[in-house]
Amino acid sequence: MEASLFVSKTGLDAQQTRMTTISNNLANVSTTGFKRDRAVFEDLLYQNIRQPGGSTGADTVSPTGMMIGTGVRIVATEKNHEQGSMVQTNNALDLSILGEGMFQILQGDGTIAYTRDGSFKLSPERNLVTASGELLQPQITIPQDAESVSIGSDGTVTVQPTGNAEEINIGQIQVARFLNYAGLEPMGRNLYAETTASGAPVVVNPSEEGAGSLQQGSLEGSNVNVVEEMVAMIETQRAYEINSKAISSVDSMLRFLNQNL
Question: Which 3 state secondary structure label does DSSP give 97?
């Protein structure tokens, strides 16, 4: 019966971790470019009491064997990188990616991070930066005399200088594609880091080589579905309760043995 207590305890731990994952999804339901997490479960090692196919007599074998499980654990949390809904902002510096790809962000330590959050601002040097002040790569600098900024679906950035009828091309925004987006490491601040699991980034222009196109004046919202998360929360709560009930039942059985034997 002690084994039953341990198995139920692993169930409590796993469901508690799943609830934390769901809570994080719900907390970020309004976070620009957020991708929801999913807890991945796996069963633990089994006690091999009798091997399936093992001999049970001179001419007979066990058709199923006897394998007793020892519980469950969460082996991973996996990001779902499906497209979030588009939110129109009509801000010229807000960008969303329709399809695959991520913006490249230069961090303070010189490394490149990646994001789907395209809510860019102008730095004092008139460079496009994130809300934390980190530079978009390749670097885009808006001239002082720019009257308007236009960003095409292919990432071409043009400005309309004051008093000039012709637009001037000032740069090209590129996006990074990955073989395995789920392998990216979430860093906070809406940023992801490259890992061995994600593979090396393939940097291309938007709308080329399978990359998505850019849409100016809009942002990609979180892909968290509140209804789905609420259903998962109820399921997790019930699973936690039934594991707690199993522990209480085993405790009652042990108490009966102590009192009657």
Answer: strand
